[in-house]
Amino acid sequence: MTFVLEKAAAPAGLRRIVIDPVSRVEGHGKVTILLDADNRVHQVRLHIVEFRGFERFIQGRPYWEVPVMVQRLCGICPVSHHLAASKALDLVVGAKKLTRTAEKCRRLMHYGQILQSHALHFYHLASPDLLFGFDAPVAKRNVVGVIAEHPELATQGVLLRKFGQEVIRITAGKRVHGTGAIPGGVNKSVTHAERDELLPQMPQILAWARGAVRIAVDLHRAHQEEYDGFGYVRSNLLSLVGKNGDLDLYDGTLRARDADGGILFDGVDSQNYRAHLKEDVRSWSYMKFPFIGSLGADLGWYKVGPLARIQNCDRIPTPLAEEARQEFLARSPGKLVHAPLAYHTARMIELLHAAEVIDGLLRDDDLHGDDLVAKGPRQIQGVGIIEAPRGTLIHHYEVDSQDLVTMCNLIVSTTHNNQAMNEAIREVARKYLDGKEPTEGLLNHVEVAIRAFDPCLSCATHALGKMPLVVELRSADGALVEEIVRE
Amino acid sequence: MSDATKPGDAPSLPTFTLDGHDVPFTPDQTILQAAMAAGHYIPHLCFHPEFKPHGSCKVCTVKVDGRTMASCTTQARAGAEIESSSDEVRDLRRNLVQFLFTEGNHFCPSCEQSGDCKLQAVAYELGMTSSHFTQMFPDRPVDASHPDVLLDFNRCILCELCVRASAEVDGKDVFALSGRGIKKHLIVNAESGRLADTRLAVEDKAMSVCPVGVILRKRRGFRVPIGQRTYDARPISEVAVDQYRRATRGDE
Ligand code: SF4
Ligand code: FES
Ligand code: NI
User: Fold this and answer.
1) For A54-421, which CATH class?
2) Ligand 2 mean position to B57 CA, how many Å?
C-alpha cells in the first residue's frame, strides 16, 4: 500500500510546491507538496539524498582505518560514526569486552557528543521557532534573532556545545576527525590534567542543563494543545536499552515497543538486527524506509531518537534526568507521547543525562588507566550499534582474511525516522496548509515538524541556519508560476 | 648557535652562504647535507640520510647563484650564494608538493600516517592547508596479501626509497618502479605481482623508509594518539635536522 498523501491519485494538473532545501536542519533535503486548484493537499514528501556511495567507498579498505574514515560521512556527528564503527570492529578483532578504561573513555566521548549535538540543535536550530512562533517574520526567526532577544540563551547554547566539544577533543585527540577509538579499545586514556580542565566546569554545565529542561518544558506548556497535536504521529518506538532497562546511549540490546507501549521485541543482540529490521525502498526517495520485519512495511515503521529512547527505557540511571523524565511521563499517564514537538523536551532530558554521566565519569579513576586495548579470536564480521544524538545508528562490516572490508551496511538515525517524518509533515499539511494559499510562514510549519526530529539529512557540513529556502510554485506543465526565496 | 659553527669545531672548512648564513662543508657534501648538518632545514622528500641522493622529487630546490638546482644532488661550492627561504623558492616547492597531492590519492584526515607523514609535514612547512587536497579517487586497490604488511599505492610519490632500501640494504629487491611519465608506478617484484609472494619481512629496512603511507604494518594504524605522533609537537624542520644528525653521527 501507499500511505495517505504519499502519492496523489491523479498528479496531472496539480501544482507542485518545493521547499528546497529544508532549512535549519543538518544536510540537504527538500519537501515537495502537490496542491490542486483549491489548494487541497494531494501529496507530501520529504526527500533525502542518501549517501550510498560511502558503503562502497569503504570496501577494500583495511578495517583499522574504518573508524577514522567513516567520520567523513558527516561533519556534524562524526563522533557517532567513529564509535559505531569502532564497536563493530571490536567484534572483528575479537574484543567482546573492552577494558574498563577503554569503555569509559569511549562513553565519555559519546556523551560529550550527545551534549554538544543536543545543545546545538535546541539552542540554535530549533529555538527560533519555539521562541518566536512558527510563522514569526523570517527576519527574526533565526539564530541572530535569538542572540538579539535572548542573549543569555544563545550564550548558554554556545558554551554547552563548547564543553561537549572539549570532552571530544580530550578523548578523541581532536574535535573532528579524532582517532581516540580503535578496534578493540582506545589509543589514549584521560590524564588527570585533562580531567582537571573539565571537572571544575561541571557545576555550571549541570545548572545550564537543568535550565535547558525547564526551558523546553515551559515552551511546550505555553502552547500545550498546539504542540501536542502538531504533526502528531503514532508509531512504534525503537532504541537500544541498557542493563536492567536503563537508558544507555552507548551500548545495550535492541528493544521495540508498539504505539501503546507494548513490547514488540526486547533483548535483541546487535548482531541480530537483520532478523528484526527490514528496509523498504520507494521509487520516489533515495532514502530507505526501515521497518520491523514481523509487522511489515505498512505497520512496522517506528520512531528513534530522544523521544523514543526516554519512553522505551524503564528508567534513566541518573537522578536529575530521571526526575525530569518522570515529570514528562506524568503528563500523560499510561500513554506514550507521540507528539514530534515533545522531542525537544526529551532531547533536553537527555542533555541533562549526558551532563550527569560526564560528571560521574570524570570522578572515576578508571578513566586514567593504561590498559587500553583488548583482543580475542578474529571474527569475519561485526555489527556496532550506538544511540547517536539523533537515534539508533547501525554500522555493520564484513572483513576478509587479508583484513580488508568486503561489506559495509549503515543505517543512520535519520533513515529510521524517514516514515515518521513523512507522516508528521503530512499531518501538518492536512491541518495547516489544506485549502489555504501557501505562505512562507505556513510552509515553515512543515519544516518545524521536520526539525523536531533533528534529522541529519546528508551527513554533510552546512552553514547553520543560513541555507536559503526557495519555494517554487509550478503549474501543471511544470512552468514556474512563482518563486519565493528566503535568504 | 648551531654545533657546526662552534669555534674550533672545524676551523678551516670552506663555506657557502644559505639565506645569508655561513654554512661550512666538507668536500663530499652536497648543499642539502651541509645545510642539514649545520642545522638548517631544507625541505626534501626523496632524500634520506642513509641513502645516496636520488634527485627525483625536486622539493629540495634552491637557487644557487641565481640558478634553480636540486640541493640534494648539487655539490657544495665555496662562496656560493644560496637562496632557500625566499618566497620565490618556497612557491616553487609548494607547487611541486601540491602536484604530488593531486597526482595521488591523499586524504590526510583519514590516513593512518597522518602526523607521521613527511609529505604532509612538508606541506605544512610550506604553508599549504589540507583543504587544498580533498580530492580522493579510490581507484588504486591496495595489496593486502602479505600477512603483516599492507601496501596502499594511492599515496606513493615514487621516491624509490623502498626500492633502494630493499635492494641495497635488505638485498631482496622487493620493489621496483615500472612505466614512464604519468604512468610510472610502484610494483612488487613477484611473478604474481603480490607482496605475499616476496621475501619482505617486517624487520626490513624497506619497511621504515617510506616518507608517506604506502608501506604499512598491518593492524597498527591509529594506535598512536594525536599529540604523540612524529610531527605533532615539533615541525619537520626540527625533527628532520635531528634525524639527519643522528643518522650521520660518526661519519663526519
Ligand atoms: S612506496 Fe613509499 S618509499 Fe616506495 S617509492 Fe612509493 S613513496 Fe617512495
Ligand atoms: S630531496 Fe632532492 S630531489 Fe628529492
Ligand atoms: Ni550526521
Assistant:
1) mainly alpha
2) 5
